[in-house]
Amino acid sequence: MKVTVENKKGLNKDLKIFIDKETMNSYMDEKYEEIKGSVNLKGFRPGKVPKEILKRQFGKAVFGEVLDKVLKETSTKALEEKKIKPAGQPKLDLKTYGEDKDLEYVLSVTELPKVEIKSLENIKFDEYTVKIDDSETDKRIKEIAKNQPNFKEVSADTKAKKGDLVSLDYKATVDGKDFKGSEGKNTQLTLGKDLFLKGFDEQLIGVKKDDEKVVEATLPENFPEKELVNKKAKFNCKILSVKQSEEVKIDDSFAKNLGAKDLKDLKTLISKQINDEYKNSLDQLSKNQILKEIEKIKVDEVPENLIEEEVKILSQGMSEEEAKKNKKDFVDKAKTRIKTGLILNEFGEKNQVKVTEQEVQAEVQKQLRMMPGQEKMVMDFYQKNPSALASLRGTVYEEKILNLIKEKGKANKKDISKDEAEKILKEAHKHDHSHAEEKKETKKKSSTTSAKEKKPATKKAKSKPVAKKTKKVSKK
For residues 409 and 122, is the Cβ–Cβ distance under 8 A? Predict the structure, then answer.
């Protein structure tokens, strides 16, 4: 195989590829040997059909298969030999071909530009660590303690009041008759919460241990025995105990109940959890800074075919007139996106960043946890849409690259308070919101839709929102 590069115009190149007829014939002979054993022709034993007979019978079909194979193999090899990374699918133009002939063709290719990534190792960005005051940790622990049930049994003559926990056995009747599910043993009710039957527990206010009390309540719409729905039932209740809520004592025992070693360990865990509530959003701000710095890196030329493809994506759903009005803005955005992608990809390749199947599945599981109750729908979506899974893989790949750039870059480390973290995130959110409104206003001005004429809605660009502050800490 002989490869020569011709017609160099910026990133566009023509590769003339020549394969002599002897090489082509050897490929043909290989194919004939391959099919000989499977061809059954009258008068010949299997595997004994002469090549000339095979050529007459199957020559055109064999040549078509061989040509397709040779074009794929040699075009890939030619690009590797000349160290060309194509931007998009190259165009192939056959010049000379045929049985017992030389093969010559031209591969027209747009090359990906060379990008400089050395400066990424010195890229500057802010890296935040939130310092949590002891008072914040104590406040959060008190909130947790407040939500921990801590009931203690009271003396036999103490009357139950709102907020107390009453345990009881009951037997119910409707019109003097028993019914399915009419008995309950050791049923516990917190008075005032009204979680059993409407108006039931308020009738227990004032009862004492060992009291017997008849409570009347209407059976609800969702009651299993449909013929009893909305009927009044009488509940003969035997009070087993009355317990009053006590303030939870915050000590080592309390901490151990929450899975910590002791109170000191619990405070460390809670402090870390509060910090983690801000970590993801602050990390995203750092990555946005890195992406902004990457946008400043100069790339001499961006492939036109990639720009055209990206502009199509950006203008998807727009009318032809709207797309034309916004074209310059879209071209600028397309160039920035492509340039950033090229730089990140080059950095990823140079540092051998790979995405494993386990990492993709971990990301899917993460999405499942974020959408409780919709797990099956999410799984079905990814199983039926390979392109969505490929996009998810791309997101994981980019995330790994940005994390590696962070490791190698120059972090301006900042210790900030919780209040400062909230202020920084609020400002970032405000900036994102105003930027989105600005884009919306631009879109309104460029729109040519009249009140009578309906046109396809513009597809909104996907922005990266700043995560909102989490108010409750997990008790895990």
Answer: yes
Q: How many CB atoms lie within 10 A of CB 93?
A: 11
Residue closest to 284 by CA, chosen among 391, 432, 419:
432
CA distances from 435 to 103, 425, 463 (A): 56, 15, 10
pLDDT at 161 over 70: yes
290: Cβ contacts below 8 Å, ≥ 6 apart: 123, 125, 402, 405, 406, 409
Q: Would you say residue 444 has pLDDT above 80?
A: no
Closest CA to 266 of 418, 144, 421, 129: 144
Burial of 336 (0-12, 13-18, 19+ CB in 10 A): middle
**Of all residues in the chain, what percent carry a pLDDT higher than 70?**
88
Q: How many CB atoms lie within 10 A of CB 345?
A: 19
**Mean per-residue pLDDT over the chain, rounded:** 84
CA distance 17 to 90: 13
257: Cβ contacts below 8 Å, ≥ 6 apart: 148
Helix or strand run (H / E) with residue 378: helix 375-384
CA pair distance 91, 445, nearest whole angstrom: 40
CB atoms within 10 A of CB 195: 10
| Cα separation, 473 vs 272, whole angstroms | 10
Give phi and psi for 121, each to the nearest 5: -75, -15
Q: How far apart are CA 344 and CA 406, in angstroms?
A: 12
Chain position carrying tokens 């730089």: 343
The span from the CA of 363 to the CA of 271, in Å, is 26
- The rounded distance, in Å, linking the Cα atoms of 201 and 161 is 10
Q: How far apart are CA 320 and CA 324, in angstroms?
A: 6
List Cβ neighbours of 317 (8 Å cut-off, separation of 6 or more): 456, 457, 458, 459
- CB-neighbour burial class of residue 466 (10 A; exposed 0-12, middle 13-18, buried 19+): buried
Q: Which amino acid is at 63?
A: F
Backbone angles phi, psi at 215, to 5 degrees: -115, 135
Domains in the chain, ordered, with CATH? 2-110 (3.30.70.1050), 151-245 (3.10.50.40), 263-446 (1.10.3120)
pLDDT digits (tens, 9 = 90+) for 85-98: 998 889 999 999 99
Retrieve residue 328's tokens: 């310059």
C-alpha span between 158 and 206 (Å, rounded) = 9
- Whether pLDDT at 153 is above 50: yes
